[in-house]
Structures are given as C-alpha cells and as structure tokens.
Amino acid sequence: MTEWADGRERKIQGITMDEQTKQRRQFLKNHIHTEFDFSRTDQAQGVPVPPAEKPPRTDQRVIELPGPKQWETVAPVDLTRAIRKRRSRRIFKEKPMRVEELAFLLWATQGVVRQGPGYTMRTVPSAGARHALETYVCALHVAELPSGVYRYLPTRHALAEEFLDGELGPKLAEACLGQRFLATAGAVWVWTAVPYRMEWRYGPVSAKAIALDTGHAGQNLYLACEAVDCGTCAIGAYDQKRMDALIRADGEDEFVVYLAPVGKAK
Ligand SMILES: Cc1cc2nc3c(=O)[nH]c(=O)nc-3n(C[C@H](O)[C@H](O)[C@H](O)COP(=O)(O)O)c2cc1C
User: Does ligand 1 come within 6 angstroms of the Cβ of 187?
Assistant: First the structure.
C-alpha cells in the first residue's frame, strides 16, 4: 500500500513508505504460527542444544563474584518506590563502584536461579528459556577490578577476563557516537546476541524474541540500580562495527545489541 485511505502518498516523516520500511515493520509482527515450521528446527532435528553461555577459554582468568550473602549494600528496596524512582541517569559520581554492587547488578540482569538439561532459568524471562544474550562488562571505575572488558558467566556467577585496557572510556564514548557520559560510568554493560541459541529452537523468526529479551534485561538493570544507589541509561545509539570490534565480537554469530553505562547516582 503506497497511499493513505484519503489518497495522499504514504510517507513517514517525509520518507515514502517503501519495501524496506515495510520489511522493518514485519520484524515487529509475530510469524511463529504462520510462517514457521517447528518440525524443521535444529531442535526438532535432534541437533544438540547449544551451551547456555559461551564457555570461557582455557587461558582466561575467571574471577568468582560475591554471592547474595555478601551483598550487604543491597538494602531492601520497596519495588513500588524503585519503579517510581527509575530514570535514565547520565550524570555519575566519581566514586568507584564496588564489586559487590557489580555482582548484584549482573545477577539481577542475567543471574541463574535454576537450571536443568539444556536450559537455565534466570532473573529475567526469555522466549523458550533460550537466553541468547551475553553480558560484557567494561569496567572503568570499579574498586579492585583493573580497567578492562570482562564477560559474565551466569551459570558460575563469575567473570571471565577478556582483556585489560586502560583507555576504554573514550573508546566507548566514540563507538557510541560521541556520547561522552559513557566514559564517566563505573562500568558499562554491553549486551551481545548469540542468535543461534534462539534459532536452534525458533529458526529464522528469532530476532524479535531476542530484541524483547534484551528489553527485559535492560529494565531489570534500571530497577536493580535504584536498589544500590546507582543509575543507568539505555543506549541504543552506537556504531555497530566499532562496538563489535571494541569487545571483539565477530559481528556475525555474535554482535552487540544494547548497552547501559552504570555509575553511582548523583
Ligand atoms: C531502546 C532505547 C534506546 C535508547 N538509547 C539512548 C541513547 O543512545 N542515548 C541516551 O542518552 N538515551 C537513550 N535512551 C534513553 C531514553 O532517552 C530515555 O529512556 C527517555 O528519554 C525517557 O527517559 P526516562 O528513561 O528517564 O524515563 C534509550 C532508551 C531506549 C529504551
């Protein structure tokens, strides 16, 4: 359809409604029951389930994170209050974040609460419990954690050290199209998608499910931040190639989908 009901040319903000726009809108629709044959998925074909998280390389340092008993800074916060207080925060104190806070926030965004053969149940929901996200933490200003990129291992509640880099702040700001406040965060969450983890079950219609899952993780981070006097801001504006290169994702089987700087709230 290229015209509105009254005969005017169909335009969105001056751009003619073209095939590409229509295709992009298609992404938002549900195709599971009309265009999807469950009998042809890898799952139905008996292909082994992919791992719930990327296993760390054998040469990687793995840092165990403090568990719930050590989260003494996490005061019980009334959920209604946390929801009401939630805001996108872009101004952070210079005070470093504590590893306990980082551990709590990682648990709140991807922590595993139960697991069985081929699935994990986490603090966030996921279509088919597939959990196709990986969480990278760019530590910029975290006490006792050298500046660098780490990856959360949900099943172990631990961090795998990817690489150390003292110049991450400006690099992140640049890769996020000059959003300089990212460099002032204590840590920056970088979520990547590993699409095959979802595609194994839902085939080519997985992208929407992954996008929805990412929103759940983002919202848990927003609310959990309120509990530890931290603040965050969702970041959807970034340069895909630069961000993939920055955290060393291959850009095909794993790529960045969302970011969130976290810091002590001002
Ligand atoms: C998908 C998404 C992408 C966003 N991207 C950015 C961004 O790149 N930079 C930024 O400063 N804020 C970004 N935001 C935050 C919004 O600007 C913010 O949520 C909005 O202004 C409403 O403010 P509030 O979150 O305090 O209610 C994003 C939010 C969402 C949900």
Answer: no
